[in-house]
């Protein structure tokens, strides 16, 4: 059994408002799918963010249809989940349309039962869990959810839904693999929160390539992120040029997170397949005067290939600071496909940003700032509101990614403010028992159903905060 694992395609994105960047994203997807098909895979997985937005343009949709026709003609099924960029709470999504055309099959919790050559369904609360079977390989998946939807009190929705199988496809950032990525302090799941018993964890969301082997994690299978198919952020640059204040000449090196592509997985072992992408240079030029910055920038331009994208950071302490307008026309004649300057130059007597961050802001304010700095697409308003409400529910904690309060703690709070009713005491006992069991490593989430509950009927909908 052999399959392709692709993630974070972001079709429809026109990076830097450059039409050629739209084409680059389409080309990368076409190359990945063609390579997968020529490898004669049994199926293709798309682990979220096929599109850059949940309502793609007709052009992006046409390109997706054209490319997805390639595996369909060879009768290679494509299984997909929605990512944070392309999920929707509307009743019908673009994924439904592609599914209707027979181009993809969407896995996860769905409103309707799905059964065909590959899809199987099981009723869960008021939804259907839809998974795929290819031969004797069982593939499960769930679209992107926020941490606050997945881990609610001591209910872990993932562990409740998934009790093992061959492949688990998710679009979430796991802390263990998020080091040195934008998700380092904003992960969705801790390693221990992943359901065990899968031979391969086909993940998306982190845009750089990462694999964690079973020996590292203690899980049955590897957790793998193929990374985005094209470069979505300067951190994913192919090359780095550093021209420091004391350097006689610039240093050029390849970025460890530079190569882009996807995995071909055989016997649950991922093998990286590179996809050709446009060179992308991240340049840092440091100097103590405007004239020196300009001279160094012109010198560096000779090292950047014409077809490249280049983001040039200007650094140093320059009297009176600089205006980027004076740099924007500097490389006009260079022929470089796209370049942009970012200034980190400081005038004198500026309070260190680090000092402000460390000394003045509380942890919760730092986290808030971190979220506000995110692109709205990456952290949409509805998720931000979820997050904010959850923080307030917890009484604005001071630690990042704090553990959610355990029901036992909540009960204690109740005891202080209200009369102790027998039912509260009973709940606490049961919760304690449950916690002991969890400590022993056997979470039994279905027990929750037997606990005294409010009049509202239990449903997965309620677990997920009314949004699936
Ligand atoms: Mn993405």
TrEMBL record:
The EC designation for this entry is 3.1.-.-
Supply one GO BP term: double-strand break repair
**CDD domains per record:** MPP_Mre11_N
What is the free-text note on the cofactor?
Binds 2 manganese ions per subunit.
Provide the residue positions that the database annotates as binding Mn(2+) 1: 8, 10, 49, 207
Q: Which family does it belong to?
A: Belongs to the MRE11/RAD32 family.
What is this protein's name?
Answer: DNA double-strand break repair protein Mre11
Tell me what organism the protein belongs to.
Thermococcus guaymasensis DSM 11113
């Amino acid at each position: 059994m052999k399959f392709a694992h692709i993630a974070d395609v972001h079709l429809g994105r026109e990076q830097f408002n450059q039409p050629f960047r739209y084409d680059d994203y389409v080309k990368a997807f076409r190359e990945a799918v063609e390579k997968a098909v020529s490898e004669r895979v049994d199926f293709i997985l798309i682990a979220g963010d096929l599109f850059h937005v949940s309502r793609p343009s007709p052009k992006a949709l046409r390109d997706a249809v054209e490319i997805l026709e390639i595996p369909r003609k060879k009768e290679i099924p494509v299984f997909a989940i929605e990512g944070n960029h392309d999920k929707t709470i509307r009743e019908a999504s673009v994924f439904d349309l592609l599914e209707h055309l027979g181009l993809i099959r969407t896995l996860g919790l769905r409103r309707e039962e799905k059964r065909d050559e590959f899809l199987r369904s099981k009723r869960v609360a008021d939804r259907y869990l839809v998974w795929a079977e290819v031969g004797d390989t069982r593939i499960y998946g769930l679209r992107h959810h926020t941490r606050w939807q997945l881990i609610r009190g001591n209910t872990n929705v993932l562990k409740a839904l998934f009790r093992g199988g061959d492949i688990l496809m998710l679009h979430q950032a796991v802390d263990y693999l998020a080091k040195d990525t934008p998700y380092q302090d904003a992960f969705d799941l801790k390693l221990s929160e992943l359901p065990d018993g899968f031979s391969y964890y086909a993940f998306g969301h982190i845009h750089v390539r990462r694999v964690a082997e079973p020996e590292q994690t203690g899980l049955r299978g590897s957790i793998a992120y193929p990374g985005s198919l094209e470069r979505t952020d300067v951190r994913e640059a192919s090359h780095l040029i550093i021209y420091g204040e004391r350097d006689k000449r610039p240093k050029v090196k390849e970025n460890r997170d530079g190569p882009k592509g996807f995995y071909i997985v055989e016997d649950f072992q991922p093998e990286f397949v590179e996809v050709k992408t446009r060179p992308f240079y991240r340049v840092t030029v440091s100097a103590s005067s405007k004239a020196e910055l300009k001279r160094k920038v012109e010198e560096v331009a000779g090292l950047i290939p014409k077809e490249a994208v280049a983001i040039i950071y200007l650094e140093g302490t320059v009297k009176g600071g600089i205006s980027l307008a004076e740099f924007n026309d500097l490389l006009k004649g260079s022929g470089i496909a796209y370049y942009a300057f970012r200034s980190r130059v400081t005038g004198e007597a500026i309070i260190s940003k680090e000092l402000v961050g460390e000394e003045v802001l509380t942890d919760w304010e730092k986290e808030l700032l971190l979220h506000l700095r995110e692109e709205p697409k990456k952290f949409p308003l509805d998720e931000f509101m979820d997050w904010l409400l959850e923080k307030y529910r917890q009484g604005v904690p001071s630690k990042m990614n704090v553990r959610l309060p355990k029901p036992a703690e909540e009960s204690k709070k109740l005891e202080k403010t209200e009369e102790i009713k027998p039912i509260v005491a009973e709940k606490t006992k049961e919760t304690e028992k449950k916690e002991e069991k969890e400590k022993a490593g056997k979470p039994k989430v279905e027990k929750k159903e037997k606990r005294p509950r409010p009049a509202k009927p239990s449903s997965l909908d309620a677990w997920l905060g009314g949004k699936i």
